[in-house]
Specification:
With about 300 residues, the chain is mostly helical. It is built from 5 helices and 5 strands; from the N terminus they run αααβββββαα. The chain has a 5-stranded parallel β-sheet with strand order 1-2-3-4-5. The radius of gyration is 33 Å and the shape is flat. It holds the Pfam family Pentapeptide. InterPro entries: 5peptide_repeat (IPR001646), Pentapeptide-BTB/POZ_domain (IPR051082). This is Pentapeptide repeat-containing protein.
Length: about 300
C-alpha cells in the first residue's frame, strides 16, 4: 500500500527549504548591491573631487597669470619705467620666476612670448637692459609653429632656465642663448638654429631632428645620450663637451670645421693631446684634430 502522506509531504518540504534559501539569499544580494553601489558612489565622489581640484587649480593659475600680465604691463607703461634701471628689471625677473612655478605649460609659454615681444629677454639688448630668468621653470613647455603662432624667437635669451623636456618645433631660434640651461630631454625639430649657444648647458637625452644647425656652440655642454637625426651640425664647437653615448658617428665627427678640443667622444674616449697646448703653426691644429679623431675611431 502506497504511503500517500509521505509522498505528499516531499513537495511541501522542498518548498519550505526553497523559502529558507530565498530568505537567506535576499540579505546577501542586498548586501552585495549595497557594496557595489557604495563603491560606485565613492568612485563618482572621488572623480568629482578631482575635477573640482583641477578646476580650482586652473582658476588659480588663470588668476595669477592675469594678475602678472596686468601688473607688468602697467609697469612697462609708466613714464618712470627705464630699461636701464636694474632695480625695475630685477623686479620683473623676480615676479616672472615666481609666477612661472604655478602656471600651466601654455601659460608659461605665453609669459615668455610676452617678455620677448616687449624686448625684455633679447640678446641684442645690452645685458643691463635684460630681464634675468635664472632658475625660471620652463619644464615641458612647447614652442610649436602653428597658424596662431609663428614661433619666431630669434635672439631670445633663456640662459640658466630649468627646461627639461622643452620642445622647439619648426621655430626660428637663430642666435638664441641657452647658456647654463638645464635642458634634459629637450627636443628640437625642424628649426633654424644658426649661432645658438649651449655653453655649459645640460642636454642629456636631447633630440635634434632635422634642424638647420650652423655655427652652434656646445662648449662645456653635456650631450650624453643625445641624438642628432637627419641634418647634422655644421661648424659646431664641442670644446670640453661630453658626447658619451651620443649617436654622432666618426663620419659626423670628421668635419674639420668642428672643434673637439678636450671633448669626450661617444665611445667614452678622450683626446690624447689638448690643442690648447700646441703652438699655432701652420696646419698643426688640423693634424692634431685628425689624430684625435683616429683615436676615437680605433
Amino acid at each position: 500500500m502506497v504511503n500517500i502522506t509521505a509522498s505528499s509531504s516531499k513537495p511541501s518540504a522542498c518548498w519550505n527549504w526553497s523559502r529558507v534559501l530565498l530568505s537567506a539569499c535576499l540579505p546577501l544580494v542586498l548586501g552585495v548591491f549595497t557594496i557595489i553601489f557604495t563603491i560606485q558612489q565613492n568612485s563618482i565622489s572621488i572623480a568629482n573631487r578631482e575635477q573640482d581640484r583641477r578646476q580650482a587649480i586652473e582658476l588659480r593659475q588663470q588668476v595669477m597669470y592675469d594678475a602678472y600680465i596686468k601688473e607688468i604691463s602697467k609697469l612697462l607703461l609708466k613714464p618712470s619705467f627705464n630699461r636701464s634701471n636694474r632695480q625695475q628689471m630685477n623686479y620683473i625677473g623676480f615676479k616672472t620666476i615666481d609666477v612661472l612655478r604655478h602656471l600651466s605649460k601654455i601659460q608659461k609659454r605665453d609669459v615668455i612670448l610676452f617678455l620677448y615681444n616687449h624686448e625684455l629677454i633679447r640678446r641684442e639688448k645690452p645685458e643691463s637692459q635684460r630681464v634675468i630668468l635664472k632658475g625660471a621653470d620652463l619644464t615641458d613647455v612647447h614652442f610649436i609653429r602653428s597658424n596662431s603662432m609663428d614661433c619666431d624667437l630669434r635672439n631670445i635669451s633663456l640662459s640658466s632656465v630649468l627646461a627639461s623636456n622643452i620642445v622647439f618645433e619648426r621655430c626660428d631660434i637663430n642666435n638664441v642663448a641657452f647658456d647654463n640651461a638645464w635642458m634634459v630631454g629637450a627636443k628640437f625639430t625642424g628649426s633654424l638654429m644658426q649661432g645658438v649657444r649651449f655653453y655649459k648647458a645640460n642636454l642629456a637625452d636631447a633630440i635634434f631632428d632635422g634642424n638647420n644647425m650652423n655655427q652652434i656652440s656646445f662648449s662645456h655642454a653635456s650631450l650624453v645620450n643625445s641624438k642628432f637625426l637627419g641634418i647634422k651640425p655644421v661648424s659646431a664647437d664641442f670644446t670640453n663637451a661630453d658626447l658619451l653615448n651620443s649617436d654622432l658617428t666618426p663620419k659626423d665627427l670628421s668635419a674639420t670645421t668642428h672643434n673637439f678640443s678636450n671633448a669626450r667622444y661617444p665611445n667614452g674616449s678622450f683626446p690624447v693631446v689638448s690643442n690648447t697646448q700646441l703652438i699655432n703653426d701652420g696646419g698643426a691644429e688640423l693634424i692634431v684634430s685628425l689624430l684625435l679623431l683616429l683615436n676615437y675611431t680605433n
